[in-house]
Design goal:
Number of helices: 16
Structural class: alpha/beta
Bound molecules: nicotinamide-adenine-dinucleotide, magnesium ion
Number of strands: 11
Low-confidence stretches: none
Shape: globular
Order of helices and strands: EHEHEHEHEHEHEHEHHHEEEHHHHHH
């Protein structure tokens, strides 16, 4: 047996997936790619397979599987192509896998990420929607299986780095007063409120500091991303929503902070490049080179902080309310948001309709207690249906 850690990268063709493969490729002495998965960019998936030579590749349907299998054979590769959600779960829970990067976007990542958790893997969590949807069940599965859950979201990775190792005893027990979750404020931080009605998907996706997939870019522009991250932080660190304060910090150099009762405030800083949290989580508790340039404080010059304006960013309020309500409310929020963002990207609704649509769905769908995953999945389906009804009537 080699001493290499075998890694499955769910969502390998995306922004986080590619950054993960970049870090992995820098450390052939430590890591080996076990499986890659993709959804639409299958030519890219083939190219990645040539470079990383995984044992398995997963695609969404049989037709793509046959085409890719033939193409990989003619490249002289022996990897096996699996299909659909079953294939995703198989490569997430496979006995030979050491770590799983969960980097599928949205609810589509829930089952494979949970499969990795239930199999007790080291799970590198980028797919925040999975945890937002299934919160208590997800964390219970982590405890039951003994999985190691490491946050990839830069803010949560920062918080993790600023907390003591025994933070699971409880934030109050380890002397934490509150967690400060930083946000860049996105591209519309200073856009006149009246102009928000007219912003385009291109403007929403042009994030000032980070280069990311389209869905999370729109979420950053609406600050729903910070709302989802607030819920994510509550679950990861067993915090109440009131213990988490969102701070707009436009330089995206401080990735989040932890405020302790003795007045100490610990921050994690670095250039805005996801390879830092990815390398941190891959090697934890060790440190490895990520390829990220050292932070040049003289070039940064200054750090600004501002309170978020909930009139400008109603999604942040909606997420905080959903976190407080609990039960299926966060899953409903997430599902309505996914439909709204997709509709905005297709130019079917305005940017400002995103929050209107989510609020309408949340008002129409009562939160239920979550005893099992089926309840979450049913709430997700119902919320998408209500969101589509809203679309049809506007
Ligand atoms: P992306 O759109 O660039 O990539 C998404 C990946 O998911 C792709 O590989 C795609 O093929 C796959 N995918 C999409 N729909 C799928 C489906 N139905 N079934 C299976 N696979 C599917 O997104 P991203 O920016 O890499 O974000 C991925 C996740 O990481 C998201 O949950 C996002 O919130 C989170 N995240 C991203 C960043 C970032 O900087 N990009 C930072 C923090 C957290
Ligand atoms: Mg983030």
């Amino acid at each position: 047996m080699s001493g290499l850690q075998r890694i499955t990268v769910l969502g390998a063709t995306g922004s986080i997936g590619l950054s993960t493969l970049d870090v992995i490729a820098r450390h052939p002495d430590r890591y080996e790619v076990f499986a890659l998965t993709g959804f639409s960019r299958l030519a890219e998936l083939q190219a990645l397979s040539r470079v990383h030579r995984p044992r398995f590749v997963v695609v969404p349907d049989e037709v793509s599987a046959q085409a890719l299998q033939a193409a990989l054979r003619s490249d002289g590769l022996s990897c096996e192509v699996l299909v659909g959600e079953q294939g995703l779960c198989a490569v997430a829970e496979h006995a030979d896998v050491d770590a799983v990067m969960a980097a599928i976007v949205g609810a589509a990542g829930l089952k494979p990420t949970l499969a990795a958790v239930r199999a007790g893997k080291k799970v590198l969590l980028a797919n925040k929607e999975a945890l937002v949807m299934s919160g208590a069940l997800f964390m219970q599965a982590v405890r039951d299986s003994g999985a190691t859950l490491l946050p990839i979201d830069s803010e949560h990775n920062a918080i993790f780095q600023c907390l003591p190792q025994d933070y699971a005893r409880g934030l109050a027990q380890v002397g934490v007063r509150r967690v400060l979750l930083t946000a860049s404020g996105g591209p519309f931080r200073e856009t006149p409120l009246a102009d928000l009605e007219l912003v385009t998907p291109e403007q929403a996706c042009a994030h000032p500091n980070w280069s990311m997939g389209r869905k999370i870019s729109v979420d950053s522009a609406s600050m729903m991303n910070k709302g989802l991250e607030l819920i994510e932080a509550c679950w990861l660190f067993d915090a109440a929503p009131a213990q988490i304060e969102v701070v707009i910090h436009r330089q995206s150099v401080i990735h989040s902070l932890v405020d302790y009762i003795d007045g100490s405030v610990l921050a994690q800083m670095g250039n805005p490049d996801m390879r830092t949290p990815i390398a941190h989580a891959l090697a934890w508790p060790q440190r490895i080179d990520s390829g990220v340039a050292p932070l040049d404080l003289f070039a940064v010059g200054r750090l600004d902080f501002q309170r978020p304006d909930e009139q400008r960013f109603p999604c942040l309020r909606l997420a905080r309310e959903a976190a407080q309500v609990g039960g299926t409310a966060p899953a409903v929020l997430n599902a309505a948001n996914e439909v709204a963002v997709e509709a905005f990207l297709q130019r079917r609704i305005r940017f400002t309709d995103i929050a209107r649509m989510i609020e309408s769905v949340l008002n129409r769908q009562a939160s239920q207690t979550v005893q099992a995953l089926d309840v979450v999945l049913a709430a997700d389906i119902q919320a998408r249906e209500l969101a589509r009804q809203w679309l049809a009537s506007h």
